[in-house]
TrEMBL record:
GO terms for biological process: carbohydrate metabolic process. CDD domains: CE4_NodB_like_5s_6s (cd10918). The keyword Signal applies. This is NodB homology domain-containing protein. Gene3D superfamilies: Glycoside hydrolase/deacetylase (3.20.20.370). Keywords: Signal. One of its GO terms (cellular component) is extracellular region. It is found in: Secreted. Pfam families: Polysacc_deac_1 (PF01522).
């Protein structure tokens, strides 16, 4: 302490109080982490796991007027590290036959023909030696351009959401996600699909090949991304298979697993998916993964938008929830 500096009355006691509070906070953090590891281990012994889902990954994170919200690259990296801390990241095929284990199992899935899967996600996976499944459409094969909601995003950014809603004859709104929700499964989304010729960066064949070369599994996600329950039987059967064999041949890898567009599936769709020859099919229902799940209606958790503390606690609560 410098000469002549006055010591406030009670200063040492106040500092001791601050230190005690700091130690108490640190102790609680340690206790929470220990409790979390115990809870995760308990889930593993009961043969539980979770399948996680992401769509877009961007360096800067979410952008303006996004229907499908982007996740920042740094946030995804943190999320992957949390999953590795809490359990074991395994291939989707291993999780489908989950038994009792020392730690819970997590599988990673990524949907759509988004180039961020290769530019941002793949380096994170390779640095951590993690497997993942990418559910692709292969739209580059026919230069089909972006998905319908990506075209909607582009129109919303250039003209405004309210203007686009009026042009489509829909109720006034300034929320692009609400607008997309109103269009999903309607002829309006099909009209947007036919107009979607630009406005979005899409995956290329070489980028998809890089996923295969890195040992990642490729699944199918339909070519046009319709809401399958809205389709009549013949169109449903076509959507489940159109472009699948061609994509498998181009990438020289079998497409054994399927992800439902928008996560939508009912009993009729699940039966048709089974008849199409898939080993498993994945919704966006938040269900705990277990070995005796119905193969055509397995669940996935879309949590990428959550702050990291909420991501961690939601994963743990998911593992602990009762059977669905």
């Amino acid at each position: 302490m410098s000469p002549g500096r006055r010591i406030r009355p009670g200063y040492p006691a106040a500092m001791q109080s601050v230190k005690r509070r700091g130690r108490a906070v640190a102790d609680r953090v340690v206790e929470q982490r220990v409790a979390q590891r115990v809870a995760a281990a308990s889930a593993g012994r009961r043969g539980r796991g979770l399948v996680l889902l992401w769509h877009r990954v961007r360096p800067e994170g979410p952008g303006e007027d996004e229907v499908v919200r982007s996740v920042a690259t740094a946030d995804l990296a943190e999320q992957l590290d949390v999953l590795r801390e809490l359990g074991d990241v395994v291939a989707l095929a291993e999780l489908e036959h989950l038994g009792r284990r020392r730690r819970p199992a997590f599988a990673l899935t990524f949907d759509d023909d988004d180039p961020g899967h290769v530019r941002e996600t793949l380096p994170l996976l390779r640095a951590r030696d993690l497997p993942a499944t990418f559910f692709l459409s292969g739209r580059w094969r026919t230069a089909a351009g972006p998905y319908w909601w990506e075209h909607l995003e582009s129109c919303a950014r250039s003209s405004g959401v309210a203007t686009v809603a009026a042009a489509l004859g829909l109720a006034p709104t300034t929320d692009v996600r609400a607008l997309a929700g109103a269009l999903t499964g309607t002829p309006g989304s099909l009209r947007l699909t036919s107009r979607a010729t630009g406005g979005s960066d899409t995956m290329t064949r070489d980028q998809a090949g890089a996923l295969v070369a890195a040992g990642m599994e490729i699944g199918f996600h339909t070519f046009a991304h319709p809401s399958l329950p809205s389709l009549p039987d013949a169109a449903l059967r076509a959507a489940l298979t159109a472009g699948r064999d061609e994509l498998a041949a181009e990438l020289a890898t079998p497409l054994r697993r399927f992800a439902y567009p928008h996560g939508h599936a009912d009993a009729r769709v699940a039966a048709a998916t089974r008849d199409a020859g898939y080993l498993s099919a994945w919704t966006t229902a938040k269900r705990v993964a277990r070995a005796d799940d119905e193969p055509m209606r397995r669940g996935r958790w879309d949590l990428g938008h959550l702050p990291i503390d909420r991501f961690r606690t939601t994963v743990l609560r998911g593992l602990a929830r009762p059977w669905d």
